[in-house]
């Protein structure tokens, strides 16, 4: 993966312009970033004194937060879905439900 990234940076002629990279939170990306930075520092290609800013992908972080929230309320959402199925299964239940909510 490292060699493919370095080759892409060279092909695009941006290896000496890189100062930031965004990746998801996969643990292998931490070691990848270390290797990439080491490679670029050895070749003196990083601007800003050899610093490389590694940012986590905000969308991935947001997805993790949402998934955690959904798992926290999964019991309640299951009960709501089952209630909707129960009421919607028979016309008499639907009618009774409509009467109850109109009061």
Automatic annotation (TrEMBL):
Where in or outside the cell it occurs: the entry states: Nucleus
Q: What is its main location?
A: nucleus
- Keywords carried by this UniProt record: Metal-binding, Nucleus, Zinc, Zinc-finger
Task: Note the InterPro entries from the entry.
Answer: RNaseH-like_sf (IPR012337), ZnF_BED_domain_contain (IPR052035)
Task: Give GO cellular component annotations, separated by semicolons.
Answer: nucleus
GO MF annotations for this entry? zinc ion binding
Name the record gives this protein: Os08g0446700 protein
Source species: Oryza sativa subsp. japonica (Rice)
């Amino acid at each position: 993966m490292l060699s493919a990234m370095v080759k892409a940076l060279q092909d695009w002629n941006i290896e000496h312009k890189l100062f930031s990279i965004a990746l998801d939170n996969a643990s292998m990306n931490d070691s990848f970033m270390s290797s990439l930075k080491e490679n670029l520092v050895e070749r003196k290609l990083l601007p800003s004194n050899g610093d490389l800013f590694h940012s986590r992908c905000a969308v991935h972080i947001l997805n993790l937060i949402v998934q955690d929230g959904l798992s926290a309320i999964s019991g309640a959402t299951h009960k709501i879905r089952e209630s909707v199925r129960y009421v919607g299964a028979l016309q008499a239940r639907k009618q009774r439900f409509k009467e109850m909510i109109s009061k």
